[in-house]
Every structure is written in C-alpha cells, then in structure tokens.
C-alpha cells in the first residue's frame, strides 16, 4: 500500500508544538480572567477590615467633620452604615412585595399559556425589560414617583425602580423552573381529578419551590448592589427612618457618598467589603439551594 | 491465525490490557492478529470491550485522560505507541456508528477533510482526483457528482455513511476500522455498505465491530469473540460459527445471551 | 370551577403588568424627551454641544453616544480573548472536571460583584497603575473605564460561549481526531465553526450589558462632557452623564438627559434583540 500523493510528514512536529502552545495560551488567558477576583476581594478584605465592628452595623453614618477628626488622628471613624442598612432593607422589602407575587404569577401565566401569541409577546417584552439599563429605570421612577406622587425623593421611588428591576428576573426564573418540571407530574395530578387552580397551588408551586426560591434570591442579590437608580430616586439621608415618602439611604448609596468625601476613605473600604460579601453570600446561598433540590 | 507467514499480519495485538479506572480492565490480556486484505469481525455482548479494543488500534482510546494501557499493538511490525499518533491515524482510518460528516463542509471538502485538517497542501487537480477516486470506491460518485459543492446534510443516512467511508479512505490507509457502521442504518443501506466492505477488502484491511452476528457471518473472513474484556475465541469465521471451541462462544452464537 | 376562573383571570391580569410597564416606560421616556427634541430637533443626536449656561443653553447627545460606543466596544475587544480562552478551558480542555467547575464558579463570582464596588476598586487600585504608566495624568479616562468594564462583562460572554461549545457533538470531534488532527486543529476546524453563531451571540449580549453599565464607568471615565480626544482622555457615557447630572438638573437640561436616556434605551434594546435573534436562528 503506497501513498498516492507525496505527504509532508515534517509538519507533524510543528503542529504538535502549535498544539501545546495553544493550550498554554488558553490556560494563561483563563488565569488572567480570574485574577481580578482575587485582587478585588483581597484588597477589600485587607483595607476594609479595620472599620468593621459592632458600631459599623448599629450606628448611622458620621458627618464629614467627625470623619476628618478621626482620620487625622489615625483612629477608627465613629459611626457606621446603619442608615444604609435600614434604608436598603426598607426598599428591598417594598420592592419584593410588589415584584415577587406579580413575577411568580406572570411567570406561571407565560408557562401555562406558552402556545398563545400573546404569551410569547409578553415573554419577549420581559426579555427586553430585563436588558434596560438600571439608570433608565431610575429616570422612570423619578418621573412617576418623585415628580408626581411623593413630590420629592423618597424610599417609595427607590423601591419602585428596584421592583421594576426585579420583575423580569423573577418572571424568567419562574418560567424556566416550571419548564423543568416533568409533564408527567401535571398529568398525574389531572388524572386524579385535580382542578386546574389546585394543581397550580398544590403541585406546581411546591414542586418547583427551590427553583423559585433560587430565582428570588438571585434577584435580591442583584438589586441589593444597585446604586444608579437610587441616586435618582432615594437620594440618601443620614436618618434612620421608615417613612417611605422621604429620602432614604442604602448601602450602595452610602458607598457613593463616602467615595465623594476624602475623609471617609476607610469607611468606603469597609462598606464595600460588607456589600460585596453580603451579595456574594446571597449568590452562593441561591446556588446551594438550587443544587440541593434537583428533582428528576 | 496460526499458520500464516508473519508478513501477512497487518496488525498484531500482544497481551493488550486497557483500564478506564485502575483495577477494572475493559480489555484484558488480548493477543490476536489481523490478516492483510481481510475483514475481521469483533463480536460480543454489550460491555465486552470490543469497542475499546477497536479504538485502541488507532489510539482513539487515549481521548480519555485517565486511561491505562499495557501490552502492545504492532502495525506492520512497528509499535503504534512508538509512532506519532498523527502518522498512525493516516495509516489506520475509522468509520463511526453514526454517520458524522462535517456539517460546515461541502461533500467535496468532507472527502478531503483529512488533508485539510492535517495542513497538507494539494493542487486542485490532485484534490479533484482524490475526491473522485474515493467517491467511486464507495459507489457514491454517480449519486453526488452533481452536488459536490453542497453541504452533505441532504444525503440519506446510508449515503452519509458512505461519504464517511470515502473520507476515511482518501488517505489510502492500510487499515480501516469500523465501529458498528450499519447499526444506525436501514436494511437496504446496510446491505449496500456490506457489499461495499466486500469490495474494499481487496485494497484495504478491515476490522469491524458488530453486535449483529449474522452480519459477521455474512461478510467477515475471520472473527474474534470477546466476553467481559477477554478474547475468548478467534479463528476463521466459518469454523468459529459452525464448530466453536469454547462453551461461551457457543452460548453467544446460539443466542443464550448478548 | 370558579376557582379555576379566578386563577386564570388573576394570572392574566398579572401578565398585563409587563405590558403596562413597557408601554409606560416608552411613553414616559418619549414624553420627557420631547421638550429637548422640540428645541433642538434631530440635531440633538449629532451635536456634541453641552452648554448649561442660562440664556444660551444648548445640549447634544453626541459626546455621550461617542463615549458609550467607544468604551463598550473597547471593553468588548479586551474581553474577547479572556472570555474565549476561559470558555475553551471550561467547556473543552477541562470539560466536566472539578477544575472547570471551580473556574466556572470563580467567573460567576465576577458577575456577582456590584458595579459600585468595581468602580471604587478601579479608582483606588487601577487608577494609580494607570498614572504610573504615564499614559494619563490622573488615571481617569476611556481606557481605565473600558478595562474595568471588560472585567465586568467577561462572565456574560464566557458562560454562554462555554455552554454552546460544550454542546458540539462528540462524534464530530472524534471524526476529526480519527483523521489525525491535533486538539487545537479540532477546536479550530470543528468546534468553533459549529459554535460560531452562539459565540458571536454571547459577545453581542456582553456588549449590550456594557452599554448600560453606569457606576463603574461614572467613577472612572473622568466626567468630561466632550467627545473623548483620545484613548486615555476623559469623557462621559450616556449612562454616566445621567448619573452625574440628573440630580441637579431641571427644565430643558433634564429633558436633554431624559432624551439621552431614551437613546440609550433604544440602542441597548436593539443590541440585545440582535443577540437574541442570532441565538434563535442558531438553536
């Protein structure tokens, strides 16, 4: 058996070398990609640790004079992010009250009626809404609430912008979770004579609960870190209050305030560290919920 | 298998053992030879190691990172583990169970894919000749000569498989390995491929894994029966089928398991 | 049976919220932007003027459109090699191994870090580096912002690409291997052509993400309301000018900012739509 055509066998070593070199390139590129995580987390942990104490969580933000005094004498700045914590909590709870039930129901609607053109249209709108930059939602909440309803910056406006952000996330994750439920489970329920609405409340939702919970947790972790829309709606405030018609602070807003004030440098690091750890923990929590409850 | 002169054995397998995980041999101490210009069938129930053995012959089993191999396989007297794997695969081609022409290439490009993948520059006239020869050899030329520059996805299953054979023989390999080549095809396409194999063995040496005993009986010259990783029995197909020496072979052939 | 009716009606009504929200957003944006367009016409889009002095106010969106487009595209260019190699690592070279799982989680962590933290880290850690290179005197500018933006969008490009790459059928790769191709050759001749549309779609979606990014860019781009004069010069993006100036704006200026918001909304929607279209055609 002779070769029909002259075949170059001397390119084999070159090809093998290119092969090995490419693999190293891929590994190098991947390492470079993840280095920033270590840099960021490391930097934050080292520089932010100082200010984290009990007062950090229980005291509101200091004013710039107090901060300057502390900074010049090398002491820990008095005060903390309590006003930001309460503000964030207030707005997130409000936003969830609106977004979670509506998101769940809309997600179920889309799933149950996926053959209708209207449902597919709603689905497309949801995807478009999800891609809207958060600052534009801030503009919208400003126009709707700040200008027309509360006549001024307010926690309500902030929560509205956050709610609009959460809604598409929850709708998408609800629909995707529902789609993973085997059709046979629904059919078994119907075969036993279950009415439609009972099937939804007693079978569909409980079976998909962990998936739904994951979606909610991920949506929450997303909005907890959002700053831009709040700059246009909640504005920020030194007070700890539950009044939704007045401006309120939030952890990311505090970071923005601190950032703009050179005296507050160490507080920025700590607040950032706290925010990042909190958001990432929620992320990890969401993931572990998702992986622990996988049904067939 | 025992009285033939050495140079007539294209492939010699010497005490080959292959394990996917330590301690569990998928192929256990197999020693056998494959004669030139013949069809050798490897049969056995699922999980007996026949595919692993076949894939070892062009070192495709090495795609599994944790694989352990002991023993040797000689191609024309040279150990396949001592030569470059690229060179080996030019001499030993493979056809797979499900037809897998490259969907992003035309029929023409598929046939010469081996050359382009290996960065081998050919003149257009050389390529045209290779394509026509290979397609004629698989009796596909007349059916596709008008549509050489279309992507192969419109072809039927049987035609796609013949295209894959053409792609494999474009290199003029010594050995052609076939891993259950007709199990995804309908009976008519199957019999066309079987006829093709009968023709191809005049130029090449074929090793065929099949789970279809009657196919082995129909077309192969020699047969190997494997069970649980071991080569239980091998010999001329006619002899093996009519007078099997091992009771396990007999049990398999009479349908007691498999 | 009435329980069924009630449920079905409830579900339908909740679907209307999306409809109302979308319509409301579009209407409010157009409404808010109208004064600016009435005053400046379509010149608004191509003008790079930005003069808030009372009496001779003139506004134009071009500086910010330029800033947005330049930073986003630059970020995408920087992101492509990183995302490409990482997705090959995860989905091809180390597919299915624990290493790949770890890398995947690390990349997902990148996505979880809030934008303001990126901006702040960029300010304190990256900016001094940029100053040290001498290419910029204060460290702010298009390049710094694009660099951080690139890091932020890598997870989006990577996860979708990796998924598409892992879906390339094994038998196609085996056919190429059996013909003697090396791993790199299999990747370039079989895997990438197979996954091409999906990979492109993932980059387009990452671009969409970059277009709307606000905080990190605001903190790093230097807040100059002009078309950036160079790669290391300061500028502003559509998102960052709104973040910087909306709080104190009123009247015509606010309308101009809302108009910029409208333009950003349209551009982002278009890019995202394009990406989804490619995915649908591919799948």
Give a written overview of the molecule:
The complex is a heterotrimer of chains A (about 300), B (about 260) and C (about 280). Chain A is about 75% helix and about 0% strand. Chain A has 13 helices and no strands. By secondary structure, chain A is mainly alpha-helical. Chain A has two domains: about 5-70, no CATH class; about 85-290, MetI-like (MetI-like fold), CATH 1.10.3720. The termini of chain A are far apart. Chain B has about 260 residues and is of the alpha/beta class. Chain B has helices spanning about 50-55, 85-90, 105-110, 115, 125-135, 140-145, 155-170, 185-200, 215-220, 235-240, 245-255, and strands spanning about 10-20, 25-35, 40-45, 70-75, 80, 90-95, 175-180, 205-210, 220-225, 230-235. In chain B, the strands form two sheets. In chain B, strands 6-7-8-3-9-10 form a six-stranded mixed β-sheet, sandwiched between helices. The two termini of chain B are about 25 Å apart. Residues about 1-5 of chain B have low confidence and may be disordered. By secondary structure, chain C is mainly α. Chain C folds into two domains: about 1-50; about 60-280, MetI-like fold (Orthogonal Bundle), CATH 1.10.3720.10. Chain C has helices at about 1-40, 45, 60-95, 100-110, 115-135, 140-165, 170-180, 185-210, 215-220, 240-245, 250-280; strands at about 50, 60. A two-stranded antiparallel sheet of chain C has the order 1-2. In chain C, helix 5 (about 115-135) packs across helix 6 (about 140-165). Chain C starts with a helix and ends with a helix. Classes of the chains: A mainly alpha (about 300), B alpha/beta (about 260), C mainly alpha (about 280). Chains in contact: A-B, A-C, B-C. At the A-C interface, helix 1, helix 4, helix 5, helix 6 and helix 7 of A face helix 1, helix 3, helix 4, helix 5 and helix 6 of C.
